Amino acid sequence: MLCGLQGSGKTTTAGKLALTLKERGRKPLLVAADLQRPAAVDQLKVLGEQLAVPVYSEVPGNPVTVCRNAIDYAKKHLLDTVVLDTAGRLHVDEMPMDELRQIDKVCKPDQVSSSPTP
Q1: What Cα–Cα distance (Å) separates residue 21 from each residue in 5, 10, 45, 76?
Q2: DSSP 8
Q3: Phi, psi values for residue 39, rounded to 5°
């Protein structure tokens, strides 16, 4: 699960991570869980096409539900690594952080990474 401030490069990092995983023989799935930034889903889809990596999205949707459904999708399609690209935060405040906690609780990611500030 990628977390961080807005503009810190989470979506670009998700693409780079998917490429690295693919080059190492893994079968990644990119998940468009940033439903706050209008172009975020499209940006991830373009990256996925360029890298020949599938992208899971639901628009409109709830980020927690999208992440949970993406994990089910990955299992059904034998994809072994799920990269959750979550919405950026303007600053650490309770509402957006609660969303990340919910995703963490429901999806139980093996690793949570925060991108450095821009």
Answers
A1: 24, 16, 17, 19
A2: S
A3: -90, 0
Radius of gyration of the chain (CA): 13
- Beta bridge partners of residue 55, listed in sequence order: 30
Global confidence as pTM? 0.79
Quick one: which of 96, 1, 107, 14 has its CA closest to 55? 14
Q: Are 48 and 18 in contact (CB under 8 A)?
A: yes
Q: Please write the tens of the pLDDT for every residue from 42-54.
A: 999 999 999 999 9
Phi-psi region of 91 (alpha: psi -120 to 50; beta: other; left: phi over 0): beta
